[in-house]
Amino acid sequence: MLESLRHLLKYAWGKPELTVLNPFAGGGSIPFERSRYGFEIHAVELNPVACSIPRGTLDHSFAFGKSLEDDVRKYGNCLVDQLQKQLRPLFSSVDAEAYIWARTVACPYTAKPVPLAPNWWLVRSGASGKAVLPSFEEDYSRARFRLVEIEEGFGPDAFDLVHGTVRRGRSRSPWANDQAIEGDCIKAEAQAGRMASQMYCVAVKKSRGGFGYRPPNDDDMEAIEQAEEELAR
Fold first, then answer.
1. DSSP, res 159
2. Which residue in 103, 87, 38 sits closest to 226, CA to CA?
3. Of 12, 30, 40, 150, which has the highest C-beta tally within 10 A?
4. Segments making up each domain of the chain, as ranges
5. Of 100, 124, 115, which is closest to residue 216 (Cα–Cα)?
6. Is the pTM for the entire model greater than 0.85?
7. pLDDT tier at 157, thresholds 50, 70, 90
8. For 24, what's the count of Cα atoms within 13 Å in the CB-facing half-sphere?
9. pLDDT at residue 127 tops 80
């Protein structure tokens, strides 16, 4: 296949070797594929987190090979062991495998927190699965959630689980009849340090594999509060 590709490149460009520029590289999927083809690749990315990913997966893996894999496993296990020692006493009373959160921004019309979620799926197979159903009653101070089973894309009360509260940088406020929250408003809140978060589901590992889901309870909230105090300390 690579030989056929080289013939096609030579036919189209007059030479089989290409130099590829990827000016918005992100996590490096395009540089990765181009490296597999043997092309020279120049990747540019301003986000330092995204920039570190292709540097680690491409530059370092080619430079150090198997020894890098061993080092990652060794120091990764050291980090996990250290975190478990610190966290296990705080979460000994809960069965949570993972907490699922949404970032929140204050509704500009009611000042209530709007959870920013592109959709409400937890797990899906085709048009069926599990989702969370948010509720924004007028007397609530923040959204409440319950778990629902979805069959063939239909949830309770004509619930639209595909479209959450945020899309393409803009949001809508369920507290104010779905009035728009512009992207500039969300960015300004984030830059001012006023964005918060709200837990809406807990994932629990099943004995036979896979995950079950449940709403957060008082033990979860107490454990998280203790962890935040320990982190601040």
1. -
2. 87
3. 150
4. 2-65, 98-232
5. 100
6. no
7. low
8. 0
9. no
